Structures are given as C-alpha cells and as structure tokens.
Amino acid sequence: MFTDARDNTLDGMYLSVEKAETILKLLLEGNSVSSVERLTEIHHTTILKLLVLVGERCERFLSEKIRNMRVKDVEADELWCFVQKKEGHKRADEAGVETIGDAYTFVGIERNTKLVLAWHLGRRTKVHTMLFMQKLRNAVNPQHWFQLTADGFPPYVPAVAYYFANIDFAQLIKVYRASSDQEQRYSPGEVAECIPTPVFGNPRPEKICTSHVERANLSMRMHMRRFTRLTNGFSKKWANLNAMLALYFAWYNFARVHRTLRVTPAMAAGIADHVWTLAELLA
Question: Which residues are CB-contacts of 217 (< 8 A; sequence separation ≥ 6)?
C-alpha cells in the first residue's frame, strides 16, 4: 500500500503529492473518509492525518491571505452539523464538553465576489459569535464602509456593534410556520415571512438579504459529507471537522471556479491571478 517515498511537502508522509491530491479531491466532492479509503486503498488513519495536516496549513493561509479587504456587501449565516452525537443525545458527563454535540459553522461572504471572508467553527452562543466577528473584523478594512446582513440570531447585534463602528447593519428575521413533529425532525421549518430589520447605520433595504450565503451553505452540504443529513458520515472529532472546513474554504476561494463569476472568488476579489491547484495549496 505504501509504495510512495517520503515527501517533505507532506511532512514526511509516505504519500505522493499526486495521491494526496486525489484524496483531497474526493473529500471535496462529497465522499466520506470510508469511501475514499475504498476508492484509493489508503488507510483511513492516513487520510485523516493528511486532512489535519493540510487543514492546518489552509487555515494559516486563509488568515494571512484574506486581510484588509475592501468590501461592499457582506452576508453572514451559520450552518449546523454535529460531532459524535447530537446535542440531545449527550450523556450527563458530556454536557459541558463543547467538542461533542451541536457544531455551527459561522460564514461571512462578500456578496459580489462570493469570497468567503471569514469562518468560525463553534457553538451558537454569544461567545462564539464574538469570535466570528473578530475574525471578520481581521479580514476586512474596518475604515471602509460596507453593509452587513445577518440572520435574526440576537448575539449578532452586540458583536457587530463591538467590532464595527462605521458600517450599516441589518438582520433578516425569518418567521417559521408551525410544522408536524415529523417535519421538524427531518427538515428545516418552512419560512412564512422574512422581515428586513435595520439595526444601525443606514442599510439599503434592497440589499438586506442572506440568499447568497445560504446558497454557499448549500454548496458546503453538497461538497462535504460531514454536513449531509441522515447519514453516518458525520464528524467523529472536532479537529477533523475544523480541518475539513479550512481545506474546503481554501479550495472554494482559490481553486474552484464559480459558475456565475467564471473565475474563482479570490480572482474576483483581486487576491489571485489564476485558478489554484490543490498542489499549490499543499505547498
């Protein structure tokens, strides 16, 4: 199985860059770790070791590359999944363990370039909302005006007010219809009404929207098996989920051509001049 020589690019792993690229491509196209193991005949522990290694590099790369961005229209949202087990299934001794149970990926996307400016894996709490806003603050030029729209999660209001003084901020409040227990269990609630709600500044009503970030969230569910509902492909370790997210966002921003833009989001934002390969992200 391990016929490849050690590669310094991969910190001495017995894996060629070409084989590593194949593994990562399969993970990014919605395959589970187990299915990648079957397709490549590479042991799952090696696949996960590669994922964590590349994920750590991608996380550093994104934080260094996406800085002081001049943006016009930003949308923020959260995407739910879980690690090991759903929150309601945790034992009493696991109640205080944040790395087990519900996990929310906060995402901030620039509406025009589709660039993911910042992301944060955490809990849906005030503390983690503040951490997400801090990352968004580090990614954009805070002196440059822009409009930010988020969903109706209340902690966004103090978090945005703390980190951004000169922007226009609005929330899109969704009102859901009552549904049966079966519908609540297997699908999101049906939206009865969306209420654009200016919070501070002077947000333009026609721009109070979260459709673009919600569409980006759909792509995340399609490209990462860990986010697919009603399967056993969910994450077993928090660190592995974080690594997969870092890999995905680096690939999405720099290596995946957006069909609407016909270039990558990074190219549209002016921070890349070509479509990156996974080999470049590995370097």
Answer: 77, 79, 107
Residue 79 backbone phi and psi in degrees, to 5: -120, 130
Whether the CA torsion 161, 163, 167, 170 is positive or negative: it is: negative
Instruction: Give the C-alpha separation, 124 to 244, whole Å.
Output: 19
- Tokens standing for 234? 């969910």
CATH class of 8-282: alpha beta
CB count within 10 Å of CB 38 equals 11
Closest of 122, 44, 135, 69 to residue 268, by C-alpha: 69
Q: What is the pTM of this model?
A: 0.93
- Tens-place pLDDT, residues 166-195: 899 999 998 877 766 555 555 667 777 888
pLDDT for 269-281, tens place per residue? 999 999 999 999 9
